[in-house]
Amino acid sequence: MAQASVRLKRPLDDAALAGVGAVLGRSFAVTALDRGGEGLSATVSDDVSDERLREALVQVLRVSRHAASEQGFAHDPADWRGEDAQPALEARGDVRRLGPGLFAFGGAFLAVRAALDTLVQAIAARQGAAELAYPPLWPVGVLRDINYFHDFPQLAMLAPGVAPDFAARTRFSEAHRRGSGPGAIACTAEDGLAPAANALAPTVCDCCYWLLRGRSDVADAAFTIHGTVFRNESSPAGALERLTAYTMREVVVIGSEGFVLARREALLAELEALGRGLGLRCTIEAADDPFFCNDALQKGVLQGLARLKHELRVVAFEGRTFAAGSLNLHNDFFSRSYGYALAGGGTAFSVCMGIGLERLAYALFCRHGLEPERWPAPVRALLGLGAADRAGQAGLPGAARTG
Amino acid sequence: MAQASVRLKRPLDDAALAGVGAVLGRSFAVTALDRGGEGLSATVSDDVSDERLREALVQVLRVSRHAASEQGFAHDPADWRGEDAQPALEARGDVRRLGPGLFAFGGAFLAVRAALDTLVQAIAARQGAAELAYPPLWPVGVLRDINYFHDFPQLAMLAPGVAPDFAARTRFSEAHRRGSGPGAIACTAEDGLAPAANALAPTVCDCCYWLLRGRSDVADAAFTIHGTVFRNESSPAGALERLTAYTMREVVVIGSEGFVLARREALLAELEALGRGLGLRCTIEAADDPFFCNDALQKGVLQGLARLKHELRVVAFEGRTFAAGSLNLHNDFFSRSYGYALAGGGTAFSVCMGIGLERLAYALFCRHGLEPERWPAPVRALLGLGAADRAGQAGLPGAARTG
């Protein structure tokens, strides 16, 4: 346990306090965060020194002061209403919880998720993007070379297997028989686990850049990728908006600075059109990534200042706002990290737009109700929901309406 | 190292010797396997007693004696030719290796993979199957309850994250900075890894049954699922047919014995039509699963005897045959394991048909050549390859033909 206080020149408002709590919570188990008098005090249950906590608190406050909150775009439909659709989606079996942060999908929810993927695919096609696919498992070097494990240890997930020898396999086999207990499985060498050569993909686009390493003939190009991504987190309340595994469609643009910046403008306009076209109450705002409380957090400040990341933030219902997509200008981050350059030796830039398909589908059900066949005609048209949208509506096995 | 010999009543032919080697190789690092005089001797480099090895050898021989090799269906087109398409697919950038058993896909290969998924979806639709989706990460209990870790330790993969406390995250963050080394990441408690609550999905359908646990009102139903599956293995030669992560489309039927057996016949006919329609040189044969050399292997014998598993085995080219699909009758395995029953209390049966989409796509390129636009018209028609099949052909970033 540790406790730390800092004095503040200006008092924090509620939103800023919540923001500080959220950032601090990425790294620590925060048990209390209080404004009192002229200061801010935090208590965490981690085994860390008061001094280290104080250092982190100062760092977080510095970041929150700099965090850009400027809104670039806002859409607030006059007829807006929003209601949490998750209880009803679960009751009818479109959504079923498998475990913390893991859900099975079927029925109309799955049909809408697929329609959203097709919609983002069309955005990609307008950028001339070629379709690519990567497995959701990457050699650890892909992430280590961009310092992912250092910057986001709280999100990283590895994928070890059992060591390839008879003794280890036998030990593991005997230890994890049916009925051996309900708990998690220890991942140590003593338990027979080999070191992990692969990690779970935290996003879908990094292999695009990694595959260019060592090249000096990179040309302007656009790509699109659909995949499952993984973050070591879940919603304590079991809510659909924070999943350990979820699907994402990305549009990626690589090339010269001019080409990338022009495509970024086009993608920003597409993101606005997406939010507006789907009838969502939403904004596009500068944002930061959930960097861990070390030097990575400082990089977060720089990122925030340069407004490299923009998020499509959707109000699903009163009190529940989340990012359903983002547009990330990487500048030359990937070409520096992996070592590649344009033909002629120029610096290669990149930008990507990623849409979290479950979050956007969830937001749509909250906004327009449980029956896609009754959604507004323009929204249905945009989603390509014709007569076929009932195809997948039989629900999940074990759901209330099926056997 | 261990060495063991057994006497044989009948000599083993070459095929049987290769079969014994393959089964033994699932559990041990086999360095030699020799027929000499009236016996068979094996040498492995594992740290295991001669006695334990001898026991396994006897067990494997017993299994190989019982293994059903009866062919149920064979299609051998008169005009057949087959050539390994992988070198050319890699040269033009449709296929790129990320690491052992992990590949990126683009271009025509990815377009054909998608077309095959749609084709199997149509088979599912003829069974009235509802579309479902599961994440590729499952709570470990899903697999422990069917004894997967005991029966297949050599294939299992877990998905641990860093322990959720500041000290562990800091340790992991510092240990795996950029430049910290090229190797795999050790999974020890000292490195900050938490026990794994989730495992990587080895197939796509198990959640269908698991979600029914505790129910006693299960009705006849069919489902279809597309997903990525994971096995802790890869081809030493880097060949496309043995991947650590690959995609699969399954058709699942759950219900009464009569319903399930009737649907199994229908799916067997569909599997034959698929192999024939795609013009492949193929067979459908009884097969076994790669059980580990313990009591699980004995269950493999029983499974083989009852001919529960049938594989669509494709000759990709001379000397390269692999299974691209399978039909698995589970009888009441899942309802017993997870505890569910039909409405009225009857025993619930199940069957699934799974198609490995990369393997089938690879087989098609080996069979019909590198240009889908030149494939036989009936094959193109079956795959729905119209004018749109050039859409995704721009290749992967870093490929020879793109920047």
Structure description:
Two copies of one chain form a homodimer. By secondary structure, the first copy, chain A, is an alpha+beta fold. Chain A contains 13 helices and 15 strands. Chain A folds into three domains: 2-64, Alpha-Beta Plaits (2-Layer Sandwich); 71-153 and 201-392, BirA Bifunctional Protein, domain 2, CATH 3.30.930; 160-195, no CATH class. Chain A is 34% helix and 25% strand. In chain A, the strands form four sheets. Chain A has an eight-stranded mixed beta sheet with strand order 4-12-13-14-15-11-10-7. A three-stranded antiparallel beta sheet of chain A has the order 1-3-2, covered by helices on one side. In chain A, α4 packs across α12.
Annotate the secondary structure layout.
Two copies of one chain form a homodimer.
Chain A (H helix, E strand, L loop, with lengths): L1 E6 L6 H12 L4 E7 L2 E6 L5 H17 L4 E5 L10 H6 L3 E5 L2 E5 H20 L3 E4 L3 E3 H5 L3 H4 L14 H10 L22 E3 L5 H5 L10 E10 L14 E11 L1 H21 L4 E5 L8 H12 L2 E9 L2 E12 L1 H6 L10 E8 H12 L8 H7 L20
Parallel strand pairs in A: 7-10
Antiparallel strand pairs in A: 1-3, 2-3, 4-12, 5-6, 8-9, 10-11, 11-15, 12-13, 13-14, 14-15
Helix pairs in contact in A: 1-2, 2-10, 4-12
Please sum up the structure shown:
With 403 residues, the first copy, chain A, is an alpha+beta fold. Chain A is built from 13 helices and 15 strands. Chain A has three domains: 2-64, Alpha-Beta Plaits; 71-153 and 201-392, 2-Layer Sandwich (BirA Bifunctional Protein, domain 2), CATH 3.30.930.10; 160-195, no CATH class.
